[in-house]
Amino acid sequence: MVRRKVVSIVVGLIVLLGLAIGSSGFLSSASAESPNPAVKKVVATFTGDARTTKGFTWYTSLASTQSDLQLVKKNGKSKKKPNFKKALTFKGTSAISSNDSEERMHKAEAKGLRSNTEYYYRVGDAKRKIWSMVGVIKTAPKKNDAFTFLELTDPQAKTEEEGQLAADTFKQAAATVKHFDFMTVTGDFVDNGVVEDQWDWLINNSQKVWGNTTVVPAAGNHEGKNRAFIDHFNLKPATSNTDTTTGAYYSFDYSNTHFTVLNSNEDSEQYRDFTPEQVNWMTNDIKKAKANGAKWTVVLIHKGPYTTSNHATDADIIGENGVRNKIAPLIGKLGVDLVIQGHDHIYARTLPINGDNQATHPKTITEWVNGQQMTYSVNPDGTIYSIPATAGPKVYKKNTSPELGEAFYSKFVRAEENHALKYGLDPSDPSRPVRGAIQNFSKVTIDKKKISVVVYEIDRIKGTAPYIIDQFGVVKK
């Protein structure tokens, strides 16, 4: 009990220090409205053709039985309030929340939208005249336009204080990057996916971020039960017979890039964390995307093969049928450009790794970006794996197990000790650094010629604005 109180005090102080920095100015096109507590956990997702469709999920009391979605085309930089009397209208469906019998979950889908267009939107119950705050979403472009997305992972807060801290990471990420087209989160949104309060703490405390972008979620193991993942994100699973109890896998195209989002909560004798059906789908999905002209391919996965903390030696990662031995070689042979991982709560990135699980050393070029050097791998023979640590309080130490050793770590460009360790150990778990001190996020920009990744860190103890800790990229000539 004493240890738990100490941790709570530490996290509480860190939250106060972090929030003192403030988060303003993000998403210049975003609504200035405050969230309506009667319509909460509003999230937009891609549900098919990212140029013309958009899915929405939100939660209300049981009294709101109607699921109404309205969109109005945004006219450039005009600050004029949208006129929803002329809105595109769509009806959705609702069901009692799997986690909370006192809440109703709603889903709706907008179709027939114009590509590369911003829309104001609101969701709610038209009959009762109860609406969410007005948000802004954007559809994908048709051509090879450059685009930027935010990448965060593992908010995983187990208390309301920690939820506020994780939510503030999203606010600071949005305030730092300002202009981005969507946001990816590679799993473990909460500590326990079936505890609905934890979803409230994260999304409601950063609703102005979540409500003004499109979220690309990958299922984490902490929301791998009881439909906890799919009930919060309106997605179309890749195959009709997918069991969405544990999550969902799916893909979409955005500009010149194909995104494949995996569900590492499945299992089979042949593949740990995956079924043969999902692996076959992934293989065909990426091959088809390349045949259709995708310039770049990006994979999002929670339990990744190349991370550097305690999960790096888990049986489902390093075992004979684990992710590193079974999934990584396929990814390399398919020519995937970038894999963004989660699960291991420490920052790391690899050299390009080929289909034989061997690191390669391509030619590199260096540019001066953001006042620092950014190194690009040129036409690499292999896939770069990265993990943006964590957006939440829980951090891990570097894995020094002999099972890994020099042969493993020689595949990494960045594999240092967790930066939170300089502030000491977690009083409740001395095997880990103190909770809440350090968070990370990444900005990823893709254009015709290159992928550019900028990795930021937030130091809650120092109380400074997010700063850059790494920059890297890929160039194709």
From TrEMBL:
Source taxon at top rank: Bacteria
Pfam families in the cross-refs: Metallophos, Pur_ac_phosph_N
GO molecular function, one term: acid phosphatase activity
UniProt keyword terms in alphabetical order: Hydrolase, Signal
Protein name: Phosphohydrolase
Residue ranges occupied by any Calcineurin-like phosphoesterase domain in the UniProt entry: 169-347
Origin species: Sporolactobacillus inulinus CASD
Domain Purple acid phosphatase N-terminal, residue spans: 41-139
Coiled coil (residue ranges): none
